[in-house]
Amino acid sequence: MHGSVTAGWLLVALCATAGAYCLLRLRAGGAARHGTVGGEALMGFGMAAMAVPATVVTPPRWVWLGYAVVFGMAAVRAPASDRGSAHRAHHLLGMLAMVYMAGSMATVAGGPHAAHTAAGIPQVTAALLLYYAGYVLWAGARLLPLPALPGPAPGPAPGGAPGAVAVPAHGVSGAVGWADRTELVPACRLSMGIAMLAMLLTL
């Protein structure tokens, strides 16, 4: 993409990290049943490759056309794989946004100003920018900690003395791995939303 080289490399690192985390979720036992995980991994690595500064490498037109085909096929499969998921519409829109950005880059690839311009449709770009700006604000607000509500004092633990803290039966050996930390999923999606917003700003 086009813009600051430093910002481009930061986007590459952010998107690659998000893609790697999605791969960890795919390898976890229960993650395979979530249809969006594989698509999010694909988007993470695809966005990382797309965010490489144009001053470093300028892919030819066929590369961008390949991007559009791959993410177009992923968009076609998204509704079926995400059936019943509340995240389906956002996931599908992300795939279509990738097709749109790849198509925009393909229209100028190889031209005399290809390293500095992109042929996006202003109305489409503006609509996507508004959506992702709203999504980033919404997702960021959801990550804020809620104030603790007053409640009754903790009672005795089952089978223990008053005030005792129950210790999980699995002990230390049952520590949750990175792939199973579901609280990281919203943060990962927020990061990808911020990256998408930044990339759309370069069109």
Description:
With 203 residues, the chain is mainly alpha-helical. The protein has one domain. The protein is 59% helix and 0% strand. The protein has helices at residues 5-27, 35-50, 61-81, 88-108, 122-143, 184-200. Helix 2 (35-50) packs parallel to helix 6 (184-200) and helix 3 (61-81) packs antiparallel against helix 4.
What would a concise description of this structure say?
This protein has 203 residues and is mainly alpha-helical.
List keywords for this structure.
203 residues; mainly alpha; 6 helices; globular
Note the topology:
Elements: H1 5-27, H2 35-50, H3 61-81, H4 88-108, H5 122-143, H6 184-200
Helix pairs in contact: 1-2, 1-6, 2-3, 2-4, 2-6, 3-4, 5-6
The span between the termini is: 8 Å
User: Using DSSP, what is the number of strands?
Assistant: 0
> Helix/strand-derived class?
mainly alpha
Radius of gyration: 21 Å
What is the overall shape? globular
Q: If you average the pLDDT, what whole number results?
A: 77
Could you describe the largest sheet, including whether it forms a barrel? Answer: none
Could you state the oligomeric state of the chains shown?
single chain
> How many domains, as an integer?
1
Poorly predicted segments: 112-116, 163-175
Helix fraction, binned, reads 55-70%
- How do the SSEs run, as a string of H and E? HHHHHH
The helix count comes to 6
Strand-residue proportion: under 5%
